[in-house]
Structure formats: C-alpha cells, structure tokens
Amino acid sequence: MIIVLKPEASDSQVKHIIDKVTALGLTPHVSQGSERTIIGVIGPEDTLRITPLEAFPGVEKVIPVLSPFRLVSREFKKENSLIDLGKGVSIGGEELVVMAGPCSIENIDRLFEIGKAVKKAGANVLRGGAFKPRTSPYSFQGLGKSGLEMLKKAGDELGMVTVSEVMDGRDVDMVASFVDILQIGCRNMQNFNLLKEVGATKKPVLLKRGMASSVKDMLMSAEYILSGGNFSVILCERGIRTFEDSTRNTLDISAIPVTKELSHLPIIVDPSHAAGKWGLVPDLSKAGVAAGCDGLIIEVHNRPEEAVSDGEQSLIPEKFSKLMSELKAVAASVGRKIK
Amino acid sequence: MIIVLKPEASDSQVKHIIDKVTALGLTPHVSQGSERTIIGVIGPEDTLRITPLEAFPGVEKVIPVLSPFRLVSREFKKENSLIDLGKGVSIGGEELVVMAGPCSIENIDRLFEIGKAVKKAGANVLRGGAFKPRTSPYSFQGLGKSGLEMLKKAGDELGMVTVSEVMDGRDVDMVASFVDILQIGCRNMQNFNLLKEVGATKKPVLLKRGMASSVKDMLMSAEYILSGGNFSVILCERGIRTFEDSTRNTLDISAIPVTKELSHLPIIVDPSHAAGKWGLVPDLSKAGVAAGCDGLIIEVHNRPEEAVSDGEQSLIPEKFSKLMSELKAVAASVGRKIK
Amino acid sequence: MIIVLKPEASDSQVKHIIDKVTALGLTPHVSQGSERTIIGVIGPEDTLRITPLEAFPGVEKVIPVLSPFRLVSREFKKENSLIDLGKGVSIGGEELVVMAGPCSIENIDRLFEIGKAVKKAGANVLRGGAFKPRTSPYSFQGLGKSGLEMLKKAGDELGMVTVSEVMDGRDVDMVASFVDILQIGCRNMQNFNLLKEVGATKKPVLLKRGMASSVKDMLMSAEYILSGGNFSVILCERGIRTFEDSTRNTLDISAIPVTKELSHLPIIVDPSHAAGKWGLVPDLSKAGVAAGCDGLIIEVHNRPEEAVSDGEQSLIPEKFSKLMSELKAVAASVGRKIK
Amino acid sequence: MIIVLKPEASDSQVKHIIDKVTALGLTPHVSQGSERTIIGVIGPEDTLRITPLEAFPGVEKVIPVLSPFRLVSREFKKENSLIDLGKGVSIGGEELVVMAGPCSIENIDRLFEIGKAVKKAGANVLRGGAFKPRTSPYSFQGLGKSGLEMLKKAGDELGMVTVSEVMDGRDVDMVASFVDILQIGCRNMQNFNLLKEVGATKKPVLLKRGMASSVKDMLMSAEYILSGGNFSVILCERGIRTFEDSTRNTLDISAIPVTKELSHLPIIVDPSHAAGKWGLVPDLSKAGVAAGCDGLIIEVHNRPEEAVSDGEQSLIPEKFSKLMSELKAVAASVGRKIK
C-alpha cells in the first residue's frame, strides 16, 4: 500500500497516519520527496484495506500494490485448475469443453432434438435455461423446476453434462439436485449472497462476468465462491457494456489472457450473448479459442423463429455442426483439442 | 415495430414475415423503397416483442417504436407521483427529501450521534446499511438484523423515516418490519426475483441504478415492482461505469431530466457513491438539485477515519450541515424547498 | 514513481533496475515485503516517465505518483486564472460567461437576428461555426472564411466577444484575425499539432474535451497550449461517450469540481452537444452552474427547422431568454453572477 | 427514415411534417396506430438526413433505416477489395499482411536491425513512426522527415513495404513521397481535413479506429477518403476506451466480422496498442487472425528498455518470430495464409 500525501500535508498529519499504520502492526516507510511525501506500507494489505485511509487529513490518494484476491490467484496456485464436471468431462486441460443448447428450455421434445444435434456435433455439455432473468416483467420467465427435470432427463439419456442458471439462493439446492453445473448469470455476478450459497455446494459453478465488471471484479466474485470452500469455478467472458452498438455487448477478448495471467481458474467464452446476432458467433468462437479459452457456451436452436428467447442469436444445428468442425482446426493450431 | 429487410430479401421471405405478423392479429404495412423494403407494424408491440423477428430469413434489423415500459411511463400517468414515506414525509412534490447517515450501521451510539446531527441539519430520512454488498468476501458484511433494530430505534426516537438495503428475497419481510423504505442496491437492480418480492410489499422502494444500466433499464426494473402492485418506487441515479477514473463512477446528471420526461416516478441523486470522494459531494449535490431531482442520499459519518466502509466518501456532520444550508438556496432557485 | 516487482523477480533483475534509476540521477528506495519487493523513486518523475520501466524484466507494474501535467496544475498556480476575452468580458471570476449562437453560421441576417436575441437575453459571447467537423463527407461543411467575416461583423456591431472553431493548423492565423476566441473541437482535442499552433498565438482558446478523453487527458492537451506560451485556455466539458443512449453523450458533471481541484483554468459546460436534444439543455445548464462552472456554451437558433446542423439541439431565443433568467437565480444561489 | 410522433401531436403538426417531406420530393407513408402515429419515408435518406426533423414540433424521434455510408458499403461493392501495396504485396486476399517494426524510428542502425529481424520472421510491411502524437508536450515527438528518410532507405534495401503516420495536412505530400502506406492515427480518425487530404492522394491509407468511435464512425471516416477518389483504405481495429483497466484499451474483436459484413474494405488488428503490454500481444494476434482479419500491425523492438516510446508493449524479435510461426498455423486453420 502506498499512501501519497498532499503537498501541504502537515507534520502532525503525517505522524497521525504513521501512528495508525503502526497501531495495525504494520511498518511504514516514509520517503520525503521534493514534491510529495509518500508512505509505503509493506506487509499484508488486507489489514489496511479496510481502513479508510483516504479519509485521513493530508492524504491525497492511496495506491494498493497487491491484488485483493487470494485463493483465485496464480500466486496461490501456479498450475491451471482442472475441474471435473462429471460424465467423463473436465475443463481446464488440453481438451476444450463446448456447452450448447437452447437459451430457454421450452419442452422435452425440442430439448432432446437440440441436445442430440449438439452432442453429435461434438458438444459435451447441454445448456438450457429454466429460470430466466428477463428485463421485462411481461416476458417469458422460464419453466422453472419442470424445465430442470427435462434437462436432467436429456442429460442422463444423452450422456451429457448439464448446466443451468440459478437466480435465487432459495433454489440453489433444488437446482443442484438436477444439474451438473450451476450457472451464475451476469446480472447476479455481484449477488454476493448467491455467491456464498453456491460456494457452500460441491457443484462446479459457471460464473458469468457482469456487464459493468472488470476482470478483477469477476475474480473477486470468484473469490467469494472459493472462500466458501468450492474451488470448482469456471469463469465466463460474455461481453461488457460499451458505447459500440453494432453488437449487444463488446466481447472483451483480452480478458482471456489477462485472466490466465492472474488466475488458475478456467475461462470460457459466450459468443452468443456478446454478439446478440448468430451471424457473428462463428468468428467470435474461433477468436476465443485462438486466444486461449478453455471452452465455449453457444446458443443453438432448431427453430429460432419459434424460440421464446434469444432466437436472433441462436445458431441452427447445421451451422453449429459446421462451426464445430472448423473449431477443431483452430483448436489444433493453438495446441488444444475438441473431441 | 419497424422490420427492415435485407436488400436481397426474397418475395417468399417477405410473405413469410407478413403471414407471421398477421397470424399474431396485427396489421403489417409494407413499404417498397428503392433500396429497402420495410414492414411497419402498428399496434401493441408487446405481442411482437417476444417474437424473435431478427431470426427470420431476410430480416436485416427490427426497430421498436414504442418503449417497453407501461406502468412507470408518463403516458400511463401524466402527473408526478407523490409517494408517502410516513412520519409526515413524502417525495415527489415541491419539497426535497434528504436522506443521510452512515454507510454501515456500526453501533447504536454512533448511529444516534450521526442521526441527531443530520436531522438537525435538515435531513428527514436516516440511512444506514445492515446488509452490505462488498466486493471482497473478507470485508465487513454488515450487522444484519441487529443493525436494523438499531436503525428502527433511532428512526423512532428521532422521528426520522428510515431506509436500508435488502439484498436477499428471504430477508424482505424481516427488513420491511424494521424500516420505512426498502433499498435495492445497484448490484441488485436486475435481481428480478428480489424486485418481484419488494413489489409484493406495500413499502416504498428506493431503486438504485445499476452501473451498466441505461435509464431505460432502470425503468424496466421499476416496472417489475409496479407490475407487482407496489407503485411507491423512488429511482436513484448513483453513477454509471465509464472510462473516467477520477471519480468512482460517472454521475449521469442527464438521467434526471430524461427520467422526468419518460416517467412519473420521483428520482434522487446519490453523490457519495458516484464520486467516491467526500470533497466532490457538495458540488454534485447542488448539481442534482439544480437539474430537478426530488431528493438526495448522502453518506455522513462523524468519524470517517473509523468508518468500517466508505469513510473516504462520507461527509462529517459540520460539512453536511453547511451543505444543507447551501442547498436551500439552490433548491429555492429552481422553485423547490428543503425543510 | 513506484516500481512493483513480480514475486519471482531475481536479485539481478532488481539490481538492473536500481542501476538504471541511479544512472538517471534519481534515488531508489527498495522495500522488501513478504509478498513483493517495491522500489520507490522519489524525485522528478519526468525523467523516469519516458523510460519504459514496464519493459524491464522482473517488473510487474509501474505506478506514477505525481500528475504528468505542470503548468495547468493548481500546484503551479494556486489561484483561479482570470482570462480576459476582450470587449470588457473576462472568464474565471465571479461572473459567469454565456456563449450562445447558432451551430453553423448560415447567413448574415440570421446571424444578426440570433446575435441580437442572445445578447438581449444576457449572453456576452457569440458563437457560430464556419468550419464544421461533420461525420459525413456529404454534409454541409461550413461557410469557411466568409462565415468568419459575418461573425466578426456581428461581434463588432453587437459588441459581443466571438468564438469559432479552427480545425486546421493552416487556418489558425486567418481564424485568429476574425474571432476573439479560438475553439478546438472535441475531435481535435488530441490533434497535437493544432494545439501547438494555437499555443503559439495570443488568443484565448476554448478547448473542448474529447469524447474518449479523461479529465487528465484534457488537462494534458491544455498543457500543450500553455507550454507553447499561451496561458489563456478555457476548458469545456461537453459529454463523454458511454453506453447510455438516451442522450447523445453523457455530460460528466463531476468533471467540473475535479478540474477545479486539479487546475487553475476556467471550465465551461456545453449542454447542447452533451444532450443532443434542446429539451434537456435548461436542466443541464442549471446543473453546470450549480456545480461551479465558469460559463456555458449553448446553441440557439431562431428557425431550428431550417438549421443546416444541430437543429434538434438548439433552443429558440424565447426559451434561451427564459433559461437565462432562471440561470441568474441559480448562479446567485452559489455565489456567482450572470450579467 | 421513420418519423415517430409524440402521442399528443396535433393534426396540423402532422400536416406540417408531411408538407416538408413532400416538398423535398419524397413520399411520406402515414400509419395511424392506437398509441402513436408514424410517418415512413421511403427513398433516398440523404435528402432528409440533413433536415433536422427532430426539431419539428410533434416529433418524438427520427429513426434512420439506411446506413449513412455509401462507397465503403457491401451494397456498393459485393466482393472484398484487394489493395495493392506495392513491392508485390497486396491486402484483402487469402494472404495476410503483417506489419511490424518499432513504435518510433530512433536511428538508422536500429531500424535496419529490427527490419531485418521482422522480415526474416515473415513480416512484409515495415512500420516506424516519425511523427508521434504524444499526450505530453514534454515527450519525444519523433524524428520527423529524417526518420522518414531512414524508413524509406530500410524499406528499399530490405524490399519491404513501409507505413508511417501522417498527423498534419501540410505533411501529406512529403510523407507520401517517402512511404508506401499513409497511416492515420486513432486520434486523427475524425480529423476530417486530413482525411480529405489523404483521400486526394493515390497512396493506400491505413485508417485506425478512434478510441470513442463506433464501427460505423470508422466507416464514415473511410467514406471521406473514398469520396475523395482514393479507394485504397485499410481499416484497423486497435481497441476502444472502456472501464476495463487491465488493458490499455479494449480490443473490440467483434469489429472484424461486423466490418466484413458492412464493408468491402480490408481490416487489420493492432494488438500492441490495444493491450499496452507485450505479454498479451500473441494471444490477441491469434484471436484477430481467427476472427478473420486481413493482417496485423505489431510493435517490435530489439531493445525495449531503450525504446523512446511504447517499450512496454513491444515484442522482442525472438518472441515475434515465435509468434509468426504460431500464426501460420492459426491462419491455415481458417483458410488463410501467412507468407
């Protein structure tokens, strides 16, 4: 922690800060420069972080030196985390994981049709929403528990890992009883109670980045889950909100190498929500793989015109299948594999 | 709804779309231009909004004409909503409401001290957090229920309306039993289950704008609460996330007149969280009042150096008191009042 | 300057950096912490700023402590700058300066009509564009020199200070021969050659903030002008580009107090370009004044329907006149004056 | 163009608008809905675009249907443009073009060393700045003409195409006499005079996207150059400004497929400026190629510690060489080639 003082800071103000730092059991290093005095505090920053140093008289700004996250960091764990998703699938290793399926689960027949198609094309995780966060109260809100029953059935029969969103702390156990991966949606990335709750389960968690969240914010949210004892967290880059309006969100492709540098957790890309248009999904998927992601989550629908949500960004199975074969080549070119 | 077709859209694609629109009971108006065919659909857009028209072959883009919100809109209700907050205080009229108090409730003595000071300066609502959404799992998370008991006690004895954040659907009834206004924090603005839950109460709700949420998104979240039967919603502009880093967030002052034009709901300004620095709070408060807001929510602490959260952005009572007297002049200059 | 080393930085890497710092005539302070080594360099940062320390092996990040600007800073000059604009008008003092007029100069009669109206309402500077930066090559590009001749004539006869944009270094002398204030548009805020060129004149410069520029970037651009010997710079907040789309840009109202803290230069607000809609101009103008700005620049047109540019954001003279009388009250409430 | 009227628009206001549209030689289609009246105007939008319809009484908003750009659009030219860069190199076809070299030209020996190294690794264009847009007036501003002489010499002897930035209209002819490609930097993307000036030359132009510019803004700037008669424009995605601060800018990878859909012009990626850190350059380069870009521009320096600018984001030749061989595989995986 570096405490930069105002040019006009008085001696007694400097002393007041030094006393405070010392009282916390830390050692202040004072450097008197020609233009500014700065106080460096070497040691565990956590103690100081909770002290509002910027509220102290004479302080101009406080600059943290260390990252605020611990368990998710590369320093805590050097090697990549390999997370077992069940049914013989794991993420974080050489092989990429592809999650695919409809935005919303609509009925059992359609789910099976789409599930079969994506599995045949090489997807190993079946996605499908049963609880849908919709901006309008008048939009379809998902089938709820009955949707999850369908997803479980499809996953079991097709031999696919399943993933679905949980939006409410009260549903965590129930959702966990049906699916293999609990998804935290971007709008809940900082719903800290929900994070604690999935952190208390043993289920892998797919944590989607919030639209206004930095990579570091995402890692802090993951830290909530790990600090609860659940180390099986998969991060997901799905676009951030910017001024650019030709896509629904702006896929922050740099988040992949940045996250890889800071953390041992696997990260996947959601090109469907980032783009908001199916036509952009193939190129963004390839970009994600080339940039080093550990998997993809792609919306696929066999009748997009009839989809109750996100029809405009869903690939039809034929296009998904074509994309999968193209992705194999891209994955190979960067030393990765797709089954 | 305007459906713009691709230049190469075929006749059968056009017919397919027209059939769909007609089947929904709506009337399409086809206009053949030299460069594009467009199909205008006049009538209730809600029916069409849930149909993924962009997924139809031949469609280039779909442009909504009407706003997606109903109950919150000026068209639904022409005059400003006046919301009774209890204890003789209401918001949305000539008189501005000032909410003030510590970020977190820390102990009963401090809360009373701060409460007395802000009341004396003219604040009519006492704020204080008992459930704190913190980016780090290692930070102080609030006193919970015992904090709310303190807040109720202070509010009752000081004759002040109280406001505190509720973060979890399971806590809504409990929090509602202690406070006068339920606050939905910016990170929960799109926690739709929570919105439904506060929508089912009779308590006034303070809805803070999300950091990546547009004014329209905020109004859609308010629509959730109103559609649940609770029309007592107070909006709050507290800054959005942008590239500018000299403030914690960027206070979107234009959101005040924009919201006033679109909606009948009152809107207040939170300069403390927008700025992240107490030194900027006075000027931003004055700007908010001059721009036409219906109130302010300001963090005040008598010992900012010891605050367990947000000390750097809290005004001390003396500065708050000075600000209040300055605000009276600004309010008067725009035809408003502060008690 | 604080140099934070990677956890795995070797002793020889540390030595290499220390040698480099020492060779530059500076004194490094090495602090060995449990998790990181950091090297503090106290002294003039300029010398180090141009050395790419982040390219040195073992360096994790480099944190500047001092601001990179000098002449524009409050540290360089404590008191507010008062800039003489000629014709008895100055900016930066108690009295606010209001600049008003059409976006583009269209013809002499219209300019006089508008000029008379805004002067009568209390404006003391007449604005009008002769060189127009337009996003489309097919849009009206301005009358050029003949427009400036009209502006000079109007300014002289009406006794008003004049301001107009200069877009090209080759036009600086010519434009300066006609107008009292040279305007640098937001798209040219980082056209450094142009900045140097207006810095070489003696004319006051109105520097508009770029849409992707932070307050600090704006101050650095002002530094270009001051370092050229021209200290008469007026800053202008006119909105930054964000995801919010209900306004053309997002007026960063906090930029006013932030700039006032960092710099001695006056700053004005342009509500017309920020909002992009005339209906929002009055409230934003009041907010600007209440937040402490030194003036406003407002687009006014007597026949907005016929305006060749920006008609949708121009106030008609009646509305401008009403606004001016309202602004007098707001100005008075914060201890300022409007003539 | 769709004109949406306010709910309260009067008949005479509607008539006034219809008269205006008709007077412009266009045909209005009025659709009376239950909630709004809308007026569709089919035909060339350019005529209407310059009329400030939003300034008309009764108008709520105006929605353009067509894109404002013409010559750069896919509708104007279906097939990809192939641009001849001289020395046997062209861009826009199967083969990717890799531009590499130092940020700034520092001296002839270093330029040759770097040039040789990047050529050997497979780069076909040598980059090097002689005019440098620097945010600080106190930073190194480039060698100017003598730098260009060095670049020409290096390009000729090494048989490489050359590219360098031109910042000032007065330098266009001079710079064009030394280099093969004129670069317009991101800060000058909307320096419309400069765009016109390079549009009047026959030289290929590398147009970098502005930090606050949408893809459509970039295409409008390209339209300036094409409308001047110069169709040899190469677009460049180099990151936009967002709240994310772990990279200097946010590389908008989606801009590649979006641009490809809208325009026939080639587009390259600049990972060095987007990331601001050399460690991220390889992954971003691969992502760009996988997403379908036509080339890359990468900063390479053999002594980054001594670079006068951008040392922290420059690859050393060994790393660049390794990257090139990896890129060959990625290019092949998406049906492209690198020499």
Short description:
The structure is a homotetramer of 339-residue chains. Chain A is of the alpha/beta class and 339 residues long.
Explain the overall architecture.
The structure is a homotetramer of 339-residue chains. Chain A has 339 residues and is an alpha/beta fold. The first copy, chain A, folds into two domains: 2-63, 2-Layer Sandwich (Alpha-Beta Plaits), CATH 3.30.70.1140; 83-333, Aldolase class I (TIM Barrel), CATH 3.20.20.70. Chain A contains eleven helices and 14 strands. Chain A has helices at 11-23, 45-49, 108-121, 145-158, 172-178, 192-199, 215-227, 255-262, 271-275, 281-290, 317-333; strands at residues 2-5, 27-32, 37-42, 59-63, 83-86, 89-91, 97-101, 125-127, 161-165, 181-184, 205-208, 233-237, 267-269, 295-299. In chain A, strand 7, helix 3 and strand 8 (125-127) form a beta-alpha-beta unit. The longest helix of chain A is centred in the last third of the chain and has 17 residues, at 317-333. The first copy, chain A, is elongated. Chains in contact: A-B, A-C, A-D, B-C, B-D, C-D. At the A-B interface, helix 6 and helix 7 of A face helix 6 and helix 7 of B.
